[in-house]
Amino acid sequence: VYDGQIRITWPNGEQTYVPPGGSVTPLALSLQAEVVFGGVAVAGYNVCSLPPVISLQAEFSTLRVHVFDLEGNPLPNASVLLYSYLTYSYKHVLTGTDGTAVFKGLPKGYNYMVIIYFRGAEVFRQHIRLDRSRVVTAYCSVKRSTVVLERMKGGKVVNATVKVYSQALNITSKSDENGIAELGLLPLGRYRVEISRNNMVIYKGELTLGGDVRVKLPVSTLKIAVKDLLGNGVGGVTLVLYTGNNTEFKVKTGDEGYAVLRDVPYGSYELTVSLGTASEQLEINIPEDSFVSVKLGLVVLPGGLAITYMAVSYTHLRAHETSLHLVCRLLLE
Prior knowledge:
By secondary structure, the chain is mainly β. It is built from one helix and 27 strands.
């Protein structure tokens, strides 16, 4: 046992402290040797002659702590602290892959406290008396946690960023195709949570985490149709949705002139629709505006060529023109 010290008291009352395995120059032919922990002697012997080596025996115990989460699974990388009321000090061991921490060389007959931390939070505490070697089974307030993201009006929110904060914890996760963000093993408790999508924060607050937690988010799907002056769909149109904090959603219409912006937070926006020199701006409000139709000042010809509408230079007949000339000229312009 290499903890503690050996206290030697000589006949004249003088004391010398020696670590286990250490050596001392004798001051007399007899002495008293004690095994000392935290200033308290746990074993003592009177030595009347001085052999080259003094072997001291004291009663020690081994403590094994088996650490589990609330579902009964071994909890690796948990920090197990053992506080000794004898020495007023801590011993620290991390659990292995089997969730076990072992403390050896503990003086028998004294009180201890087992404290377990996981991811910065205390998850278990128990007072014990160590009269013999023993095993402590600790079921900690730790559980595998997920956050399920749902829209207010139904449906899952995918590809959203979930950030979880505490004093000693900082976790970032993404929601999958089922709207589930995996957070791994977490101590049960309150956490600060921020949820965002497309760099826009759609939720910020506190949640009690532990197990599966469902969060209803104020987001909606916005469908936009862009048509020309003849009512035909216009593809390749750039749509930009601006918010008050300069955050933006950007998308292009497909061949049929439609675009979809998913999981847009509720609120007021400015929508800019542009193709070449043709552009339109309008104010929209989500979720009231779930479908928006925009007509651009242009005509799309067969083959996809877009002709932007411009004011006609002349609208009256010249001296030699008939009405047919005017119609042809207007069409050309």
